[in-house]
TrEMBL record:
InterPro entries: Endonuclease_7, Endonuclease_7_sf, His-Me_finger_sf. Pfam families: Endonuclease_7. This is Recombination endonuclease VII. SUPFAM superfamilies: His-Me finger endonucleases. It comes from marine sediment metagenome.
Amino acid sequence: MKLTKEYCYKLKHGVLINDYEKLLKQQNNKCVICNMPNPGNSRSVFVSIMTARKRKILVRGLLCDDCSRVLGIFEDNPERLVVAAGYLLRVH
């Protein structure tokens, strides 16, 4: 079986290239969290945007590399992120 570019992309990212491009356009070519331009460029990644839930893939949005890393460090745990944000608000 020959693996097409489209199939390999789907295996790696969980979505088809066309779906990725539509999502990027919906986000005005910006990271959904920090609004950094071009989250799909070579420095940025299409990571940490999918969650397996009841055998479904939930695509949450395209993230830049930094935002993806932060969510990974916080293990996609919103409570930990809220506590961290509260800490930053108190010390600033």
